[in-house]
Amino acid sequence: MHTRTSRPRRHALVAAAAVAGLALVSACSNASQGSTAPTAQSCSGSAKATTAIANVWHQDENALGVSSLTPPPSKLCMVNTAKYKKSGPYRIAFASQGPTNSWAVSSDADVRYEAAQQHAKLLYASANGNAASQVGNIQDLLAQSPQALVVQPMGSAIQGQLHRAAQAGIPVVVCTGQLADQSDIVSTVNRSYALQGTLWAQWIVKQLNGKGQIAMLSGIAGVPTAEDSYAAAKKFFSRYPGIHVVTHQYTNWSPTQAKQVASTLLVKYPHLNAIWSDSSITDIGVAQAYTAAGKPVPPVTGDSANGFLRLAKQDHVKFALSAYPPEQCGQAIKVAVSILKGTSVPNQVPVNSAVYTDAQLSQYYRRSCSDNLWVPSQLPTSILTQLKLC
C-alpha cells in the first residue's frame, strides 16, 4: 500500500503491490551531528511518550482478550517544536509513494482531506511507486518553500534531501514507514509491525490453548513489513512449546500465490489448527483453497480488507484482524500542523488501529463497498464514492 524504505506493501486485491519499507527503529538523537547537521531536536518527556505507546498495545490486546505485554524497548520522547512555530495558514509538502493501488489511493485521499480540514495548502508530489523518483520529488517540493515536509518513504536514498530540509529549518514528518537515520526527522507516524505480529500470535495461542500445529505465511521475503511482523510472532510462539510451527512460507501478498501455497498445505499438513498470516489478501487465497477442497478454513489472522470480510462472512471463517490504516499520512498532516503551532509532539506517534475478530465482522464489513476498500475507512462516504470504493 504505501511505502517504507525498501518495503512493498500489498494493497490491491487483483495484484500484489510492491512497496518499499524500513525496519521499526525508534530514535531521538540529542548527540552532535557535526558542522553540517541541523540543530539537534530538543527531546524529553520519555515517560509520557512511553506511556502512549504502551496504551496502544494494551488497548489492542484488550480488544482480542489476550494478556498485556511490555512493548519492545525503544527511545521515545516528546520533541519541543517551539523553534518551528509560525502563523497559519500553513504550506505543507507531501512526498507520496503515489496512488499505485487501492490502499495508496485511500492514503492520498485522506491526506488531501486532512489538509483541507486543517486549512493548509498542500504541495503534492507522487513517486508513482518509484524510489528514485521520490528523491527528485522532494527536491522539487523543497524548492517551493514549504513550512513542513511529510514523507511516505520509499527508500533510504531520500536521507540527503531530508537533511537539506532540516538544515533549512523545515520540520520533517515520516509516515507509514521508518527510516533508520532519525536525526533529521521530528516525528514518525507508523503502525508498529512488532505489535501487529505479536497480536496475531497472541490470539492464535489463546485459540489453541497453547497447543497445536500452525503454518506461518508472510508477504515478501526481505521486506521489513513482512520480516518484522514474522520475527515478533515467532519470538512470542517460542514461549509455548506446545505450539508447533510446521512451515513458514511467503505469498508475495498475492491471493493467487496464497491459494497455491494453501493448496499445498492442505496436502502436506492436513491437521493444521491455525494459520498465522500478515495479510487479509493472503487470507483470501487461503479461504479459496480450503473452500475449493471442501475443507473448513482454519482460524487466520491479518490486516483488514473488505474483500476478505466478504469471504469470511460467506464461509464462516474464524479470524483476528488488525488494520494497517491508510489514514496514517493524514494523521501525519495533523502532526505537522501541531509542529508549526509550536506544540510538542512524540518522536514516535503510536497509531491506533481497528483490532477485531469474526465476532465483530458485521460492524466492519461494508456490503455496498468494493472488495478493494480497506476497513474501517475514516473518509467521508462522498469521497469513497468518488474513488469508486463505495
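Above is the first protein from milestone M3; the second protein from the same milestone is given next.
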Amino acid sequence: MTMLCSHCQAEKTTKTDRLPPGWKRFRDMTWCEACWGKSYILRAVTIPVVGPLDGEWADLRTTLKACWASATTVANWAVTEMARNDTPRVTGAERLAKAPKLYLYPGARQAAPECNPQSVTAVLHAVEKRYRAKRLATLWQRSESFPLYRYPVPYPVHNQGWSAVHGPHEEPCISVRLGDRRWSLRLRGGAEFRRQLKVWRQIKDGEALQGELALIGQIVTDSDHRNGIVQRDAGGGPRKTTRIMAKMVAWVPRHGPQAMEGILHVKTSHPAFIVYHVGTNGEPKHVHAEHVKRWEAQHRRRLQNMADDLKHEKRWPAETRRNMLAAQDRWCKKYRDRMSTFCHEVSAVITGFATRQHVATVSLDTTDRSFCERFPWHELIEKCRYKLDAVGIALEVINK
C-alpha cells in the first residue's frame, strides 16, 4: 500500500495497511514523520491523584497494590529471562554478541496472569529497552549490574484504556480501567499544576494526541498529609507513605514560529555554576547556586559516615541494620530529587531567557565541571534540550 501525507503529499510504500514508523494518524489526517515533528512535540506531565469518585479508598489501595506487584513481577522476570538467554563474554571474544530475539509475552502472562495484557506488553517494551541500553556495560565492560526493579514499578495503561473527563463539579479527572473494573480518579487542581492541567485539557478537548498513562507510587514523608498507601518493605522495616501520581503522556501542539536570530552562550564555570550572555559582548548573567555545593558535600559526608558505621565488626542487630539502610535510601532519594529539581530550574531559566531574547541557538559549554564533584551533567543537558526544542530553539553542546 502507498501512504500519502495530508500536508506535504509525501508518499511511502508499505506491505500492510499499518502506518510506517514515525507516521501518525490524527484528526482524520495522515502525518509523515517530518510534518508531525514540526507540528507536535511529545510531553509527559505528572499530577497527584486526590481520590476516587466512584469507590472507596480501601478498594483503590488494594487494586493499586495488586497492579504494582504485577508490574514489578513482570519487570524482574523479563530481566532474568533476557540475562539467562544472553551470550556472556568469553575469553578470546573480540566484540559483544548480538542480543537474542526473545518472545517474552507468553511467559510474562504466566508470571502475572492477573495483569492486563496491554500493560504487560508496555512493561516488557520498557524493560527490554533499558536492558539493551545496558548490555555493553553489564556483559562486556562489567562495570554495572543488570537492572533491578523495586516495588512499586509504575503501572502502565494503554492509550485506549484511559480518558480525560470532567467530574460532577467540573474538576479534572481521569477514567481508567484497573483490575476488573473502571475507576474515575480525581486529579489535583490549583495554580501550581496549571502546566499539567493545560496538557490534561488539551487531551480532553482533542487538541493533543493521547498517549500512555502510568500510575506511580511516589514515596513521600509522613507529613505529606495526602491520602495514599502506607506499607513496609518485604521482611519488615520502617513504614513508607506512598502518594498516588498519574503520569500522562501526549503529543501536544508546538508553539507558533517566531523570528529568531543570534546565539545565547551558556558556560559552566567556577565559583558560579553557569555564566550566560547573548552574543559575544552581551552583559554576563550568573547562576551561583551555592546551596548545590552544600547538598553535594552533605550527601558525600553522610554516605561516608554510614559506610563507616555499617562495617561488619560493628555487629549491628539485623533490625537496626535494616533501619540504617532504609535511612540511607531515603537520603539518596532526597539528594536525587533535589538535583533533578535543580536541573529543571536551571534549564527553565536558560529556556525562558533565550525565548525572551528571541535567539535561534543556545550554545551550552560544559567543559569546566569543577563546580561540583558529582553533578548529573547529562541530566541538565537533556532537560535543556527538550525544553528548548519545545520553543523551537536549537541546542549546541560543547563538551571537550
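Note on the second protein: The CA atoms of residues 156 and 214 lie 4 Å apart.
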